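Incident log, structure service

09:12 report received: a user says their structure output differs between two submissions of the same chain.
09:20 pulled the input from the user's history:
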Amino acid sequence: MLICGTSAVVCPFASLPRVAARRRGTTIVEINAEATPLTLEGVSDYLIQGRTGTVLPLIVAMVKALRKD
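09:34 re-ran on a clean worker, output below:
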């Protein structure tokens, strides 16, 4: 699950990553300028710290490059 550019405190969205984290095999990646309660509580497996508008295009470019191989 990708969590992008949110404070993770407004419901009902804030509960979705917590529900997903309880499901076996779910990986939660948070892309955000700052840590959120999801980061601090250990809900997120990974935090990519940066602005969503900057980070997401870089990830897309990397995935496209990998698919060419």
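09:41 both user submissions now match this output. Likely a transient worker issue. Closing.
09:42 reviewer note: Residues 57 and 63 are 10 Å apart (CA to CA). The chain has one domain: 2-68.
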